């Protein structure tokens, strides 16, 4: 039976909890790195090494499972005194948790275990507790001592506390950041599902935040999405991602390339040269798409740049006729 109660620790136990979580994170990352190096060394061809990096291990080196790593953990404490500051059973529980995550990945039940960034290690456990560790005021925890607990229900005297786990609840800001990042990844995968090439404007959102938009671009994480998440997802999904010059994308006609002067209050792009009438956002998106495709053509051997490419490029001509290249780029 598992019950959950809220701790009300003072400043000293809070500092000790943060220290324990940080040491547990270091042990997790080191143990995972050790397992990953062993796995990479077994996947390397016999006649060649990785072009990126390779950590060679002897052919008879045993797999670093829980028992091997727990034995090594005891041995390395002499060289790393920081490990002695945390209860040994707590660190062993970290290795057991990693071993379970590894086995779950090996059996294809979950993804590959991830390295923990700072503040990403959320919990640690005490596998053994004292028999008299509960009082009306709180609970006595190994290494932490007596900690005040808000008892939301009464624990019967017939029950015996076997183990305890300390969980650090995420702050409101952390939950918002995680939710925003999750949405960014879902959006990036959604975009990759419908395109073979994606182009975006090379914008500096820090400058935009100083203008009429204020802090909204920073709060919404536009830079994180366009500069980090979307390029990374495109790389993994083998979708081409490119950035184009943002100057004048809202002032050019997407069909003939003529300049169409207008401010943000005008939501329709009306070109007097070719008669094209489109929503301003759609017109700007097609201009971005054309510039990105033009950049690919130039890299592949088209020597002419400037407005003449718009008129001479077969790709631009096709886009002028059909509006976009179906199935190859993301354009409205």
Summed up, what is this model?
With 332 residues, the chain is α+β, with helices and mostly antiparallel strands. Helix content is 43%, strand content 11%.
What's the topology here?
Elements: E1 6-7, H1 11-43, H2 66-76, H3 88-106, E2 123-126, E3 138-141, E4 145-150, E5 164-167, H4 172-193, E6 197-201, H5 205-208, H6 216-219, H7 222-237, E7 240-244, E8 268-270, E9 277-279, H8 280-299, H9 307-312, H10 314-322
Parallel strand pairs: 6-7
Antiparallel strand pairs: 1-4, 2-5, 3-4, 8-9
Helix pairs in contact: 1-3, 2-3, 4-7
What this model shows, in words?
With 332 residues, the protein is α+β, with helices and mostly antiparallel strands. It contains ten helices and nine strands. The chain has helices spanning 11-43, 66-76, 88-106, 172-193, 205-208, 216-219, 222-237, 280-299, 307-312, 314-322, and strands spanning 6-7, 123-126, 138-141, 145-150, 164-167, 197-201, 240-244, 268-270, 277-279. A three-stranded antiparallel beta sheet has the order 1-4-3, with no helix packed on it. It has a two-stranded antiparallel sheet with strand order 2-5. The longest helix has 33 residues, at 11-43. It is elongated, with a radius of gyration of 29 Å. The two termini are 55 Å apart.
Question: Order of strands across the biggest sheet?
Answer: 1-4-3
Overall average residue pLDDT: 83
Instruction: Calculate the terminal CA-CA distance, rounded to whole Å.
Output: 55 Å
Order of H and E elements:
EHHHEEEEHEHHHEEEHHH
Classify the helix fraction into a percent range.
Answer: 40-55%
β-sheet strand percentage: 5-15%
């Amino acid at each position: 039976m598992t019950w959950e109660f809220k701790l009300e620790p003072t400043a000293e136990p809070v500092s000790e909890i943060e220290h324990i979580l940080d040491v547990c994170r270091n042990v997790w990352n080191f143990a995972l790195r050790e397992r990953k190096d062993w796995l990479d060394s077994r996947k390397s061809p016999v006649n060649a090494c990785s072009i990126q990096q390779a950590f060679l291990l002897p052919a008879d080196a045993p797999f670093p499972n829980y028992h091997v790593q727990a034995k090594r953990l005891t041995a390395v404490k002499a060289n790393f005194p920081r490990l002695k500051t945390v209860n040994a059973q707590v660190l062993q529980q970290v290795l057991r948790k990693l071993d379970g995550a590894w086995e779950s990945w090996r059996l294809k039940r979950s993804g590959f275990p991830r390295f923990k960034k700072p503040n990403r290690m959320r919990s640690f456990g005490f596998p053994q507790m004292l028999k008299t560790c509960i009082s009306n005021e709180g609970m006595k925890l190994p290494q932490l001592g007596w900690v005040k607990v808000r008892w939301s229900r009464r624990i019967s005297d017939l029950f015996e506390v076997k183990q305890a786990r300390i969980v650090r609840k995420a702050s409101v800001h952390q939950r918002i950041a995680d939710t925003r990042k999750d949405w960014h990844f879902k959006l990036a995968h959604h975009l990759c599902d419908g395109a073979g090439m994606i182009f975006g404007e090379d914008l500096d959102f820090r400058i935009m935040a100083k203008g009429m938009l204020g802090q909204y671009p920073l709060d919404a994480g536009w830079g994180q999405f366009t500069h980090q998440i979307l390029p990374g997802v495109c790389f993994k999904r083998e979708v081409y991602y490119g950035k184009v010059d943002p100057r004048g994308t809202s002032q050019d006609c997407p069909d003939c390339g003529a300049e169409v002067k207008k401010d943000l209050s005008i939501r329709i792009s009306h070109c007097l040269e070719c008669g094209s009438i489109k929503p301003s956002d759609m017109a700007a998106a097609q201009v971005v798409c054309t510039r990105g495709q033009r950049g690919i053509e130039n890299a592949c051997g088209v020597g002419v740049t400037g407005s003449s490419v718009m008129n001479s490029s077969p790709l631009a001509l096709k886009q002028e006729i059909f509006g976009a290249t179906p199935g190859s780029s993301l354009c409205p």
